Amino acid sequence: MNKNPVEQIKKQAENNDKKLDNVSEEFLEEYDDEYGIVLNKQKPVYYSVNKIMNSKDVLVFYLMNYLVVSMENNEKESRKDLKMKIKEFKNNCKKTLESVIKDKGGYKRKGYKKDNNEDIKDTDLKNKLVDAFRPKPFNAPKTSKSYAFFKSF
Q1: What is the pLDDT of residue 125?
Q2: What is the pTM of this model?
Q3: Distance in Å from the first CA to the final CA of the chain
Q4: What is the dihedral of CA 79, 85, 87, 92, to 10 degrees?
Q5: Distant-in-sequence, close-in-space partners of 96: CB < 8 Å, separation ≥ 6
Q6: Is the distance from CB of 31 to CB of 9 less than 8 angstroms?
Q7: Closest-CA residue to 136 (of 64, 48, 72)
Q8: 97-135 pLDDT, tens per residue?
Q9: Which residues contact 11 (CB under 8 A, 6 or more apart)?
């Protein structure tokens, strides 16, 4: 019997008295549909969700910090063969979030606050996310919607 990993993550969050915001939930669902999520703490998506859940709710800001910002740092420090895998993973995360934000019609601060009742308080983190999702030329995924979303905070 194959269980839905996103449902299992939601249940785990519930059991830990944490919540999964709706953008993170949709991101996880879309990522799982496209690339698959393995419930193994050695895998980056599940590892990141668990790290966040240890101390706070799983909000898209923290999730993207782990999956994109920290991956960019790892990419710089990695061996050449690993750099390509990290870059591909990071770009998959960017593409997935861009698709979710686009499906939500751009999803500015107002919509996010209404649905999640929380926003980002850490301006340093906000600036890291804005930089990470700044649209880049040359074979990079389009990130203008996600960039506008983070910038709106």
Answers
A1: 95
A2: 0.93
A3: 42
A4: -170
A5: 27, 30, 31, 34, 35
A6: no
A7: 72
A8: 999 999 999 998 899 988 888 888 899 999 999 999 999
A9: none
Q: Which residues, 6 or more positions from 63, have their beta carbon under 8 angstroms from its beta carbon?
A: 24, 27, 48, 49, 52
Say how many CA atoms lie within 13 Å of 151 toward its Cβ: 12
Q: How many helices (H) and strands (E) does the chain have?
A: 9, 0
Joined together, the tokens standing for residue 83 give: 């750099």
Tokens 């107002």 locate to: 110
Q: Which residues neighbour 133 within 8 Å (Cβ) at sequence distance 6 or greater?
A: 64, 68, 94, 97, 143, 146, 147, 150
**Helices 109-116, 22-34: crossing angle, 10 deg rounding:** 100
* Rounded Cα gap, residues 19 and 53, in angstroms: 9
Residue type at 144 in one-letter notation: S
